[in-house]
């Protein structure tokens, strides 16, 4: 028995799975009933926070798969401490998010947001732009998405370093990886700071007033990780006071971003609605990843993308 949390939008291409299992599709309200007697849960609605509140009804669940790379919506104590296997959809969004990051880096360097404003105003205003080649970028988060970002930025001529749990040299994608504990002492060396770290107790709020104050005044901040990595009020202050030159934000601590939020009115900010990884066909690809793991689970073979529930992400090497 498979429970699928999907809300109003059913996942596509479920035919092969439906032919081999009894499936209960459900929204958040019906999740407790769908979980009773279910052996596995597919969290297709990966933005939902309903699983912890319904978990009391999960009397047989042995495997949970979430249709995203981030697993924070299902990292509640009861699941973390259980022997239920948790897998994610690592690998689906790597290249797409990397392309987004390269796009906003170029947009900042070439002042494209201002060009669009001037175009709407029908104003001819010549300006000089920046080069991206030779600029330094720090990618905070050294998982597969961070590595894809590093490779693409390096191909564009940027000098890229990484930041992760521990410091090391000789990394094939980052060269030098700095320890996250040293964020405030290292971040001032970089022109672009890209946040893509998983959300854990250690990373929550890591970009705070101290981090922004330590950045270059000309630095740009990009967040494609989780909104909760950032103390948003501190970011707003840093942007207003010129502590940093700009920000590109695809994720927020509250989504959708409220219409009266100050981020909407800041001229040095690019906002997108949590779409940096969403290429045409991404929903089908998410189901393909789950279908592969479902076949493995049904056949008793090892699952892919098994999350270390103490770390909160899939360890390197899987």
From TrEMBL:
Molecular functions per Gene Ontology: NAD binding; oxidoreductase activity, acting on the CH-OH group of donors, NAD or NADP as acceptor
InterPro entries assigned: D-isomer_2_OHA_DH_cat_dom, D-isomer_DH_NAD-bd, NAD(P)-bd_dom_sf
Entries under SUPFAM superfamilies matching the protein: Formate/glycerate dehydrogenase catalytic domain-like, NAD(P)-binding Rossmann-fold domains
Pfam family, any one: 2-Hacid_dh
UniProt entry tagged with the keyword Magnesium: no
D-isomer specific 2-hydroxyacid dehydrogenase NAD-binding domain location: 103-276
Name of the protein in question: 2-hydroxyacid dehydrogenase
Species annotation: Amycolatopsis bartoniae
